[in-house]
Design goal:
- This protein is elongated.
- The protein has two domains: about 150 residues, no CATH class; about 150 residues, Trna Endonuclease, Chain: A, domain 1.
- It has about 325 residues and is α+β, with helices and mostly antiparallel strands.
- It has a six-stranded mixed β-sheet with strand order 5-8-9-10-11-12, sandwiched between helices. Strands 1-2 form a two-stranded antiparallel ribbon.
- A hairpin with a 3-residue loop joins strand 8 and strand 9.
Length: about 325
């Protein structure tokens, strides 16, 4: 059931059309017939000498007030089960009210606007409590939608290595490597040193291809987006949302499959790397035959890896271990 259908059923049940003014006049209150002499006390002159005049609102003013009222009615909800972010939800509320009342009243858009605005500005209006009930009933529907979206983001994908065919633009070049799971292996042609991450990855490939790492059967450079690539879900509290982490490398040795992510410079120190590193350790826990972590080159000391459940990084690399492929 869509949210629009769900909201309509609640509204149909709760609203009695007899409680709505179906032919309202929506006006701006104006004060006329006064000449201001004393600008320091002009408000007194307005009320003492002026007369009131109700000027019917233009369509533009009605719509602006309608938008504001939709935002306000969501923002002022005090019940936690009726609370939604008004900046994202007011437009959906407006759309739902339009579709529902235009059909129910057989009215044009501007006539429906007048009915809705006239009712919402009244302290005793009929629509506000109906909207509150609809928001309450919508909560489980919204939570189900969020859970479905989260489940789609976390679905398990089978990685095919190698795929039957790959296509690359002229921005890539074929590297002469022997242990890549994909042959030929294509790498972005960015000048060395222009982007530290790419230069860092080339150095790691040299490490994997080294004759010292005879245990490596194959290595695979993972993609950085898309459901066809391996990813791990993690929560970033700084952004207050769940995201996907695509580790850089999948490496098969005689005894272990390594899931690794190479970092260099300030990227190793970032909060986002910390959240990814800790999510990776949670994912690896209890998985027999798997190992991995964040890997950083420690100058002449070679590559080091973080195996700790709680990630931290500084220039001393305290708590990090020399990376040795088993």
């Amino acid at each position: 059931m869509t949210s629009e259908i769900h909201s309509k059923k609640i509204a149909d049940k709760k609203l009695d059309l007899k409680n709505l003014d179906l032919k309202p006049k929506v006006t701006n209150g104006l004060i006329v017939g006064v000449e201001i002499d004393d600008y320091d006390n002009f408000t007194k002159e307005l009320f003492a000498e002026g007369g009131s005049h109700d000027q019917e609102m233009s369509r533009h003013d009605i719509e602006r007030l309608y938008n504001l009222l939709c935002f306000k009615i969501i923002a002022k909800q005090t019940d936690e089960n009726k609370k939604f972010a008004p900046e994202r939800s007011w437009g959906k509320l407006k759309t739902a009210l339009n579709i529902w009342l235009m059909q129910k009243l057989g009215a044009s858009r501007i006539d429906a606007y007048k009915v809705i605005v006239n009712d919402l500005v009244s302290p005793a209006g009929a629509l506000a409590p109906v909207i509150g009930d609809a928001l309450l009933a919508y909560r489980p529907v919204r939570e189900q939608e969020v859970n479905k979206k989260s489940a789609r983001a976390k679905r398990i994908e089978q990685i095919e290595i190698p795929r039957e065919a790959l296509f690359f633009t002229d921005l890539y070049e074929s590297l002469d490597v022997k242990k890549s799971a994909m042959e030929p292996f294509w790498f972005e042609k960015t000048p060395a040193g222009l982007f530290g991450g790419i230069n860092n990855e080339k150095k790691f490939i040299e490490f994997l291809e080294s004759s010292k790492n005879k245990r490596v059967i194959w290595w695979h450079k993972n993609g950085d987006s898309g459901s066809e690539h391996f990813s791990i879900s993690y929560y970033n509290p700084d952004e207050n949302k769940e995201k996907l982490f695509y580790p850089d490398w999948i490496i098969q040795t005689k005894g272990t499959v390594y899931i690794l992510d190479t970092k260099a410079g300030i990227t190793a120190e970032s909060n986002d790397t910390k959240y990814k590193a800790e999510a990776l350790q949670v994912w690896l826990k209890g998985k027999k035959g798997f190992d991995g972590g964040i890997v950083v080159q420690d100058g002449p000391n070679g590559w080091k890896i973080n195996y700790n459940a709680k990630y931290s990084f500084d220039s001393s690399m305290k708590g990090w271990e020399v990376f040795d492929l088993k």
